[in-house]
Amino acid sequence: MYRTHTCGQITKKDVGSEIMLAGWVHARRDHGGLIFIDLRDRYGITQITFNPEKNPEAWKLAEELRAEFVIQVTGTVVARPEDMVNKHMTTGEVELMTTDLEILSRAQTPPFEIGNTSVNEELRLTYRYLDLRDARLQKIMADRDRLITHVREYFHKNDFIEVQTPILANSSPEGARDFLVPSRAHPGKFYALPQAPQQFKQLLMVAGLDRYFQIAPCFRDEDARADRHPGDFYQIDLEMSFVTQEDVWNMVEPLMIDLTKTFSDKEIVEAPFPRISYWDAMKKYGSDKPDLRFEFEIVDISEIVAQSEFKVFKDALALKNGIVNALKIDDGAKFSRSEIDSLTEVAREKGAKGLAYIIYEDKPRSPILKFMTPAEIEAVTKTVNAQKGDIVFFGADTLLTASKSLGAVRGECGERLGLKDPKKASWLWVTDFPMYEITDEGKVDFSHNPFSMPDGGMEALETRDPLEITANQYDLVCNGYEISSGAIRNHKPEIMYKAFELVGYSKEDVDKKFGHMIKAFEYGAPPHGGIAPGLDRILMVLFDLPNIRDIYAFPKNGNAQDLMLGSPSTVDEKQLKELGINIVKKV
Q1: Which of 61, 134, 151, 185 is 20–30 Å from 50 (CA)?
Q2: In this prediction, what percent of the chain has a pLDDT beyond 70?
C-alpha cells in the first residue's frame, strides 16, 4: 500500500491519526530548519512538514526533494496554528508531521511550471502529460467524465440502447474529407474512418432498435478552428424511429437544459428554446448560428434606397438577388476610425467589397451622405431607429454575401462591446435548411446531410427548383456556436434516388455507394430521425473555454499534429510495401 488517504481529503477530524500519502512535490519551502512540502495528487494538496528534531533521517532525505518528485510519506495529522491556516485550501487547517519518507521517483526539472497557462502552447502540448498535472485541466477531464455519465443515464432512463458502431467503415459524402485506411488484405482498397455513424444508425432503425445512442468518435480531415478539433472529435449521437422533428426536439431540449444547469452557472435566456428558420436567421442576423445574447438585427432597406444614385447601392440592387441591408449598433459611434477599418476587413473576409456606415452624433456624419438624399437618410434613420451614439453599417451585395458580411460585423461588435455575457446560455433551434446549394463551380450539391427527407417529398423534388427545396433538417445553436445538426431521414428508396439525381448521381452511382442502404430500406424501414450534439463543443461552451483543445486529454495542435507522439509520422518501407503504397512527393 502506498497511501491510506488522498491529498485532498484530510481535515481537522483526522488530527492525531497516522496516515500515509503519495503524490508529486508541488512546491518546497525551507523555514528555519523546517522543510515544508506541498504534496499534490488529483484530489488536492496537503502540506507536509519535516522537522529535523523529530525525524532527522526523513528531514535529511527531504533536502533532496525537488518539484515533481514522486514520494510516499507517513506521519501524523496535526492542526495548523490559527495564524497559519490556509483558507484557500480544503486541507488548509491541517498538515502532516512526517515520520517516514520514501522517494518513489525522481524528476528532472520540468520545462515549464505546472499550471502556468501563459507558457507557449506548443511546448505544453509537447509535454502534455506534464500539462495535464494542472488542477484546471484535471477538473475538465473529471467534469467531462461526469457529463458523459449524466448523458448515458438520461438516455438509458428514456429506453435508449447504446450501440458501438464500426470505426473501419466506407467513405461517404458527409461534407468533409475522409481519413482513409489502406487494406493489406485487399490491395488497392481502403476503409474510411467514419465522419459520423450516420449510415450505421439508420440501419439500426431498420433493424428495429428504435432508440439508439452512442458517445461516438468521429473523424474528419478538416482544418482546426477555436471550436473545432482537427482529426477526431466526439458527439452524442442518437436516432429514433417513428418520430417527427418535434419528437427529436422534445427529447434533446430537456437534456441540454439539464446539462446547462448542472455543469455551468449560466442562465438560460429562453426556454423552451426559440425556433427560427434558416432564411430568417440569415436575413435577421447574417448567420445560421446567431448569438442571441444581444439583439442587433439586420434590416432590409432595399426599398428605401431603390432609386438611390449611390453607386454601391445601385450596383448591388442590379444584381440577381441583390439587396441593401442596414445594421444598427447601439453605442457604436465611439468606434475609432481604425476600429471601423478593422470591421471593414471582417466584412471583406465574408466577400463584401467594403463597409459603408453612418455615425450618429449631434447629427449624422459619413463619407456616403453626399450620395444620399435627405429623404433617404431620414427614412433609413427611422427604419433602424438610430439614436445619438449609434452607428449604422450597410451591406450591399447579393442576399447571402450582404447578410453574411453584416453577420460577421454583428458578431465582432457584440464581442467588442462586451455583450457576449458568459453568464448566459442562449439556446435556439434553426430549422428548414435548404436541401441544395450552388457550389463555387456552379453545380447543384447537397447543402447539408444528403440522407435528409425533403419537405414535400417526391413531389417537391419533381416539381420545384432544387434551390427552393427545404429539408427536414435542423441545427441546435448556443451562444453563436453550432452545437448539433440533425434531420428526419429519407427512408424511401425512390425519393433517395431522385434526391441524388438532382446533384448528378445516376441510379447506378447511388447503388454503388449506398446500395446497402437502398437494399435495407426495401425490407421495411420506419420513418426515423435524429441528431448528434457535439460533446466537445458543449463542454467548451458550458465551461467558457477559449479553445476546444482544452477538452481533450491529448489534443492536436492547429496543424493537426500530435507534438507529444510526433504524429503524423513517416512509416518504414516494409509497411508501405505490404500495403502496395508508393509515396509521391508533391512538386
Answers
A1: 134
A2: 99
List every span in the chain annotated with CATH 2.40.50.140.
12-105
Q: Average pLDDT in the 347-359 region?
A: 96
Q: What's the gap between Cα 164 and its chain centre? A: 23
Residue 186 sits at the vertex; the CA angle it makes with 216 and 167, to the nearest 5 degrees, is 5
Hey, which residues does 19 pair with through a beta bridge? 75
User: 441 pLDDT exceeds 90?
Assistant: no
Q: Where are the beta strands (DSSP E) in 405-558?
A: 424-425, 427-431, 436-438, 444-446, 473-478, 481-488, 528-531
Q: Which residues contact 356 (CB under 8 A, 6 or more apart)?
A: 312, 366, 367, 368, 393, 394, 396
pLDDT digits (tens, 9 = 90+) for 120-170: 999 999 999 999 999 999 999 999 999 999 999 999 999 999 999 999 998
Spatial neighbors of 490 by CB under 8 A, at least 6 apart, are: 451, 452, 453, 454, 496, 499
Q: Cell numbers of 509, please?
A: 452511382
The pLDDT of residue 449 is: 81
Determine if the pTM surpasses 0.85.
Answer: yes
Alpha helix (H) residue ranges in 244-308: 245-263, 278-285
E-strand spans in 461-513?
Answer: 473-478, 481-488
Three-class DSSP category at 518: helix
DSSP-derived secondary structure letter, 221: B
Residue 284 CB burial class (10 angstroms; 0-12, 13-18, ≥19): buried
| All cell numbers assigned to 337 | 476610425
Question: Is the pLDDT confidence value at 450 over 90?
Answer: no
Q: CATH classification of 114-263+526-587, choosing from 3.30.930.10, 3.40.50.970, 3.30.390.50, 1.10.10.10?
A: 3.30.930.10
